[in-house]
Amino acid sequence: MSCTNVQNLIMPYLDGDLSKDESNAVEDHVQECRKCARDLDNSQYLSRLLKDNLDLPEAPKDLREAVIETVAEPGKDGG
Amino acid sequence: MLLRKGKKRRPREAEAVEKRPMFRDPRNFGLVVQTYQNQLFRYVYNMVHDHHLAEDLTQEVFAKVYRSLTSYNPKYPFSAWLLRIAHNHGIDYLRQKKLQTVSYDSVTNEETLHEASPEFHDTSARTAEDTTQRAIIQEAIYSLPVDYRSVIVLRYLGGTKLEEIAYILGIPMGTVKSRINRARQILQRLLAESKPGTRAP
Questions:
Q1: Which CATH architecture has domain B105-194?
Q2: Does the structure's ipTM exceed the value 0.85?
Q3: Set of chain A residues whose Cβ sits within 8 Å of the Cβ of B67
Q4: What pLDDT, in 10s, does the model give residues B87-101?
Q5: Domain count, chain A
Q6: B165, B151 contact by CB (below 8 A)
């Protein structure tokens, strides 16, 4: 497998979207290729950063009541 | 194509909402809001990065959902349908207000991206997960154009499947994959540039 092919498969590899054969091919390649191994390492780190650091704000407490009030009044929601 | 196979793992709310008449009662619709409000609010917030604005837009999204219940197609997950409405509403707002983020032409160029393979972390930096790092990462995410930010948020905030992302954003699967790849490359570059002492491409 070429470096270009491996580059394209790194993200689906990390997301578990590859077949067993494709995963094995990526793993075999990075054993031998230092550049692709580094890219895989970087990508793995980025995935973890994204999962750990995306904003997860809670919905405002009064959102539910505000929506019910809006949809209960004909015309108020603009529809 | 996002056809559901059987009823396995189908959310109870998705089945219930197919009995549309009961949700035409605003009091019952509160169950839908209760169930999905955090998911929708987080998605909209990550689009506009403003708490009060996200609150207003999410409220409008639920009003749209309420008016559109009869058009829900049960072959798609209910949550994906809601996110699709939220995304379209958010995009409409951003276009109207011209809040689309700056073009990233200079860094989304394919050749530039494939050449860019920065070491944006080092072993010692991995232990330095503090609020500063969090702020840097979030700033990088919010600096992405909304088309790229959307795929990142859907993929990494909710673990949304690629097929569902395609449905939510109304784009082909191939475009989803390329946008995720490009977004990740942009983020790697931004993070490498923001970290002193690391090698920028």
A1: Orthogonal Bundle (1.10)
A2: no
A3: 71, 77, 79
A4: 999 999 998 887 554
A5: 1
A6: yes
